[in-house]
Amino acid sequence: MTPALHLFLIVSAALFCIGLLAALSRRHAIFILIGIEMMLAAANLNFIAFWRFGPQPQQPTGVMVAIFSIAIAAAEVAVGLALVIAVYRHYRTTNVDQLNRLKG
Amino acid sequence: MNSVAFILIAILTLAAALAAASLPKLIHAALSFAVTFVGVAAFFFLLGAEFVGLVQVFVYIGAVAVLIVFTILLTRRDVGKNHGFNWGGVAIAIAVFGGLIWAILKTQPLSIAAPPIEALTVKRIGEVLMTSYVWPLQCVGLVLTAALIGALVLVMNEER
Known about the structure:
The complex is a heterodimer of chains A (104) and B (160).
Chain A: H1 5-25, H2 29-53, H3 61-91
Helix pairs in contact in A: 1-2, 2-3
Chain B: H1 2-22, H2 26-46, H3 50-74, H4 87-106, H5 122-131, H6 134-155
Helix pairs in contact in B: 1-2, 2-3
């Protein structure tokens, strides 16, 4: 038997919060991207778990949403890393605390 | 049997995620990040979504982790110090986790045991992708193309 739905939800909530921690508390731009990717993976895990335990698991709706979400996440991380490289070229740093040119 | 697998995968995934969030060296964090996504893919296999698990492995470990490692190597000579750690983020993350756990445990479960289903084959996924999800598929293709061009434009040499 497969473990119940709320166990998957708890694991996914923990993964989301670890991603949130990485995105909020690290000061390196790549770490922030890693945290965002973890949060997206937690959301995908929720989609798949709700699809599996939902009333109509014959319809592959949750699987489709997860596949599209993975594709969007791949596009997002490509653009994000390109931005990190562009910022690094300009400022010679990837520390987000030092990117304060627009600060009033 | 499945419960044992669930516990093992959960411990692996969460430990690797914590390592990725807290290790001071970037390259170690990137490798732990890859291990985290192996764990998430294992969850997908456990839930019967084999195709999504495979896509996860291909996209995240095959492409995203390699991309992150390349970016780390390209931005190595960093003059600023990167060792700052914001403890306010930890407090916020713990608060959000508490709220989510409270909401999950308070809600009535949908069904205790997962209903048995026949395996979701790649053929069926392909049929659905090409019939009812064909417009989202085209839009994702457009988004990916635009992201590719955008990434190239962003990292192109700034000489003029």
